[in-house]
Design brief:
alpha+beta
Length: 331
């Protein structure tokens, strides 16, 4: 049965964001949904076709909902997704539509994983800082001169640390999988060490910069993946996560994680560093994938936006541009 094309579901729709949402600063379309960004929030919109793909309801609605408390002002949203989407869509960058959709989906996956990490980081950091402030002001409760009573603890630290490491690994894997949509590679490498070996087998000088960059990022990604793997599968190596503790010198030690036998790292500091590292990994590798695969008669280059010109509402840092001077000079 063919549905009447005058049915409400086929008519143009309109929507408005909540009054306190702020101005729309960016949009991103992916598969069956649209994301609308304000400075500090994300709203996801689904069309009647996405809600009812089998076309069974003539009154199938448009549906919108707030999906995140992070918006275009987030470095993760801006530099991983919006900046990457702009690069993929730059005029003259030729990527087949089917591959472009998958690339955008992988960038979105990376963005979502890092936002999950950021949510955990904020929660753990806020709790840890509250405890630190309280201890700084009031000290710890000592009973009978020797019993440190009710040493404060960050709630659910083990679970939050696990969730963080799962999602940081997920972000790294999504960056690795991106390579196969730009380069003649199978979609099988889920870490940078394996990916580097696969790229080396292509035996082409045009991948030299990509290989150098992979080598620079491998130690950091390997460390984060090992923290996750040896938490999930402990053996001779095991990831240890410690809340606030008292040292042998009767000093308060802040929450740390580490591989057994290695130097402990502050969880609060390490989470922030891991997110910043992963943002840089995502944007850097995308640029290398793009330029290593680019076949264009136009002289493209990576434009770095000066710090003073970065828009805090959408803080992208790079864009793909054409060197107009080279075209005019005939170089």
């Amino acid at each position: 049965m063919t549905m009447d094309k005058s049915a409400p579901r086929f008519q143009a729709g309109s929507m408005s964001l909540p009054e306190d949402a702020g101005e729309i600063t960016a949009m991103f379309s992916c598969d069956d949904f649209l994301e609308i960004y304000t400075e500090n929030e994300t709203y996801r919109v689904k069309s009647p076709e996405a809600v009812d793909p089998e076309v069974t309801n003539p009154n199938a609605p448009w549906v919108s909902s707030k999906s995140s408390g992070f918006g275009s002002a987030s470095d993760i949203v801006a530099r991983v997704l919006l900046q990457g989407s702009d690069m993929i869509g730059a005029g003259g960058v030729s990527i087949p539509e089917d591959k472009k959709r998958v690339i955008l989906r992988q960038l979105h996956t990376c963005k979502e994983a890092l936002l999950a990490c950021e949510t955990v980081r904020q929660r753990v950091t806020e709790s840890a800082h509250e405890i630190i402030d309280d201890i700084s002001k009031n000290g710890v409760d000592i009973e009978h001169g020797r019993h440190v009573k009710n040493l404060p603890q960050v709630p659910n630290l083990e679970e939050d640390a696990g969730a963080f490491l799962i999602n940081i690994k997920r972000a790294i894997v999504s960056v690795c999988y991106l390579a196969s949509y730009f380069l003649p590679l199978p979609n099988k490498d889920n870490n940078l060490e394996h990916l580097k070996k696969s790229v080396e087998k292509l035996s082409s000088d045009k991948y030299e910069k990509l290989l150098n960059s992979l080598g620079e990022f491998i130690p950091g990604t390997k460390h984060l993946i090992e923290l996750r793997n040896y938490q999930e599968h402990p053996g001779e190596k095991v990831t240890l996560i410690e809340n606030f503790t008292i040292t042998p010198k009767n000093e308060v030690c802040y929450p740390v994680w580490y591989l057994k036998g290695k130097k402990p790292e502050s969880i609060v500091t390490s989470m922030k560093s891991a997110i910043d590292f992963s943002i840089s990994l995502s944007e850097t590798m995308l640029v290398h994938y793009l330029f290593a695969s680019m076949e264009s008669r136009f002289p493209y280059y990576l434009e770095v936006i000066p710090d003073d010109d970065i828009d805090p509402i959408k803080p992208i840092r790079h864009r793909v541009s054409i060197d107009i001077g080279s075209i005019h000079s005939g170089k």
